[in-house]
Every structure is written in C-alpha cells, then in structure tokens.
C-alpha cells in the first residue's frame, strides 16, 4: 500500500500518465496531476480520483518546457502534501519527419519535454527524498530508448538520453533509499500513437491500416498493443518494497519488440 506516500506524475491528463496516477491513487497515494487539456475535463478527472480512491489529488498546469514552472510544481506538491516520495516523469510528445526536414523548434520541444523536464523535476525533488531517506523515480522512456526507428530522430535521441540519465541518477542516489528506473513500453494505444498515424502515412506513403499493421505492430512480435494499465502496474510494482533493490534498470513492456 502507498498510503501516506505522495506522487507527482507529469503528463497525467491523458494516456499512460493518467493510468499511472490512478493506479498510484488506488494504492492510497496522494497524487499531483499535470498536463494540458480542457479545464473542465481535468477538474472532473482530479475530483474523480479523490472521490474514487479517497486520496488527495491536485493539478498543476506546469509546462514541461519551462524549468521555473517545473520547480514551482514540485514546490507546490511538497507544500500541499508535505512530501514527494514518488516522481513519475511521463510527459512526452512525438514528431515524425525526415531529419533534414525536422523543424528545429520541434527538436527543441521534444528534447525539453521528453528529456530535460526529468532533470528539472529530479533536481527539485531529490533534496526532500534524501531528507526522508526514501524516493521512487520512474521515468517513462520507450522501446525507442533501446532501439531506433526512422523519422523519429528527436524522440529516439531524447529517449536514449533519459535511459542514460536514469542510470546516472540511480548510481548517485543508491545509498539514500531512492531508486530510479525506466519503464520502456512498445506501442501503447493512446492519443500520442493515434495522432502520429497521419504523419507516418505521409512520410512513408501508406494507408492507415498499413501504418498500424506494417509499421506499428510490425515491430511488436505479440501483434498486440500494450495497454496503459499494464504500464501502470509496473510503476506500482516499482514503488513497492519488493522493488527496493531494483535501480538503474530499464524495464521493457514491448511485446518482445526489443528482443529482436
Ligand atoms: P499522451 O499524448 O496520451 O499523453 C501525454 C501527456 O503529456 C498529456 O497529459 C499531455 O498533456 C502531456 N504534455 C504534453 N506536453 C506537455 C508539456 N509541455 N507540459 C506538460 N505536459 C505535457 O501520450 P502517452 O502515449 O500517454 O505518452 C506518455 C509517455 O509515454 C510519453 O513520454 C511517451 O513518449 C511514452 N511512450 C508512449 C508510447 C505509446 O505507444 N503511446 C510508447 C512508449 C513510450
């Protein structure tokens, strides 16, 4: 049980992050949600988590491209909950383009959100974790932290980067009761995957069905999408005492993709 623990989950208004926030709340943790979206929908999600799981749920609209807002989000969570024990760096975006046409501002945004935001949350949260002698840092990386695909240069660079960052942080914090691990999903059916289908159709000259079968699920030997709840269950496991000696690991949940 995670009762008396508090979590911050970046990018948790949708997809994997929302599933992780709910799973942690189900175990009794207070949660701070973060991400973009329609204000009424976010408030309904926040209030729904409090009502369903009997925990405190807060929302921060901090933009993961803005270091000062990120520091403010962690400070706000520490102020409200008195602690941040679990930090899930999940916010992420994708952009699909040949490298020579890749818009530099898209490159910068992907590196900021998918990689640098984790540095900014970690540097803000670690002092409190060290003081309490407990912390769980969980970075949602990707199969693309281990292998590459064409037309995703920024994403692959950011995800390989966060895998390395995770290992470095794990070593630094190893004697402080703080673990740092990556979860690396293959293709999970979320808005992020759905929304890249049109650009992949364009970049590769394929139909929607061909993108799903021949690009997305082609990489995944099980021929099934991963579910958000399957990813969330691993995050819960990493917060448990059974996972105390797991640190610096990169856990694949990819239907066998990176075994190939
Ligand atoms: P999603 O699009 O459903 O959710 C992304 C979340 O990040 C949303 O809450 C969004 O509002 C938030 N976000 C985006 N930009 C932000 C910003 N600047 N500041 C704050 N929040 C921001 O995507 P998802 O598929 O759930 O992806 C979540 C994570 O999982 C990402 O890091 C992604 O790279 C990773 N991932 C996804 C898949 C997949 O197949 N869906 C596979 C491997 C890894």
Automatic annotation (TrEMBL):
PANTHER family: 3-OXOACYL-(ACYL-CARRIER-PROTEIN) REDUCTASE, 3-OXOACYL-[ACYL-CARRIER-PROTEIN] REDUCTASE FABG. Belongs to the short-chain dehydrogenases/reductases (SDR) family. Keywords: Oxidoreductase. GO terms for biological process: monocarboxylic acid metabolic process. NCBIfam families: PHB_DH (TIGR01963), PRK12429.1 (NF009093). The keyword Oxidoreductase applies. Its EC number is 1.1.1.30. It comes from Methylobacterium soli. SUPFAM superfamilies: NAD(P)-binding Rossmann-fold domains. GO terms for molecular function: 3-hydroxybutyrate dehydrogenase activity. This is 3-hydroxybutyrate dehydrogenase. It is an enzyme of class 1 (oxidoreductase).
